[in-house]
Amino acid sequence: MGTASKSYQYNLGTYHRKVTTANAEAQVWFDRGLIWSYAFHHEESARCFEKAIAEDPGCAMSYWGLAFALGPNYNKPWDLFDEKELKKTLETIEHALTEAKDHAPDSTELEQALVDAVQARVPKGLQEHDFKACNEAYAKAMESVYERFSDDLDVTALFADSVMNLSAWDLWDLKTGKPTPGSRSLEVKGFLEKALEQDNVYEHPGILHLYIHLMEMSSTPEVALVAADHLRNLVPDAGHLVHMPSHLDILVGDYRRAIASNADACLADEKYHNEHGGDNFYSFYRMHDYHSLIYAAMFAGQSKVALEAVSRMERSLPASLLSIESPPMADWLENFSSVRVHVLVRFGRWQELLSLPFPNDKDLYCVTIAMIHYGKGVAYAAMGDVEKALRERAALKEAVKRIPSSRICGDFPNKSNVVLKVGEAMLDGEIAYRQGDYDVAFRHLEEAIKRDDALTYAEPWPVRILSDLSHSRDIDH
C-alpha cells in the first residue's frame, strides 16, 4: 500500500468492493469513495474517486463513482443545486461519464451495466421536468441492473437509492401509515429486507443507512433498530452514519442512546472539520448532527448537554461560512444559528432569552432574528409581561416576512418561513394563556398543531406535547 493511503487518517471500517483495476492504490481509494458516498459525504467521496482516477486513469468504476458522488441525493436533489453550482457539476459529471464509457469495455459485465445506468442520471435540460425525467430514467435503468444482479448488495443499495429519490422525504403517509400515492416504498422495503437476509449484510453501510431512512417515516420504525445497531460503530469516522441510528432512537424514546450516538457523530465531524475546514456542503450534515444531539438532550431534560452542544455548533458556524454564495450556505445553514432559542425556551431560561442580542446583519441572520423575537415573546409571556410579549409577537410577524422562501429549516426539507408560522401560533397561544383566555389559547395551540402536522416529515419540536402540557397547567390552575 502506498504512502498516500497509509497517511489517510479516517477509520472507515472494512467494507470493500473489488473493481477492475490492477492498481492497489486505486482500489483503496475507490473503496473509500464508495463508503463516503454511502455516508452522504459526497465531497469527500468525489475527492477519493479522483484519487483513484489519478492512480489508475483506466479504471471505469472510478469515473462511475465520481459521476455518482457529484449527482443528486436524498437530501439534495437536482433542483436544490444553484445555477452556478449546477453548471460546474454537470460539466464534471459529463466528463466522468464519457471516460467511464470509454473504459467500460475492459470491465466486468456488472460494472458495464452500472456505467450504462448512471448515464441516465444527467438531466437533458435545466428545468424541473428535466430533473424528474432523469431521476425516473435512472431508477428504471437501475431496476434493469437489479433484475440481472439482485444478489449484489451494492446493486441493491444503488437501486434503493434511485427509487427512494423519486419520493425523497415523502415515502409514507404519516396519518395513515401507508405509502404515499405514487411512491414505491413497499417495493423498496421488500428488496432491502431480502438483502438483509444475506450473509455479511450487516457490514454494508449503504443497505443499513437506506433501510433506516426508509423505515423512519413508516408506522413501524422499530423494525429497523437491528440494522441501526449494526450501523452505529461500523464506520467510526463517518459522522453521518454514526448519527443515523438516532433517527430511530428518538422515535422509540431511547434518548440516552440518541445522545450517545450523536455525541460520537459530532466528534467524527469535528475530526474532519479540523483538517478540511467548514467551507463545504458537508457542513449541513455536521450542523444536523449537532442539532440532533441538542434535540435528544432537550427531550432527555439534559440542559447542560444541550447548551454545550449549542456552543460548539455556534463556534463552527462563522459568518464567513454563511456568506458563501455557491452553494448558498445561508439558505442551508443560517437557521442553525437560532437553535439556542429553542434550548432556552425548553428549559425556561427566561432571563437568558431576554438577554440574547440580535445579530447586526438582518439579511444574513433573518431566521435567527425572527426566532429571537419568538423566544423573547415566550419569555415575556411566561414572566407575566403580556404587553412586551405582544410587541415581540408583532416583531416576529414582521421578521418572518423578511425570510426568503429559499431558507431551509433545520428540520429539512421544510422552509424556515413555513416552520415559523408554527411558532407564531404557539406564541399566540402562550400569550392568550397568560391573559387567562384559555379557550383562545388552546385554539391557537391546536392551530400550531395543524401547521406542524402539515410540515414534511423531519425531526420537529413536538407541538402536540406542548399543547398537552398547557392543558395540564390549566387543570392544575
TrEMBL record:
TPR repeats lie at residues 26-59. It comes from the Eukaryota. The keyword Flavoprotein does not apply. PROSITE patterns: TPR. InterPro entries: TPR-like_helical_dom_sf (IPR011990), TPR_rpt (IPR019734). Keywords: TPR repeat. Transmembrane segments: none annotated. SUPFAM superfamilies: TPR-like (SSF48452). This is TPR domain protein.
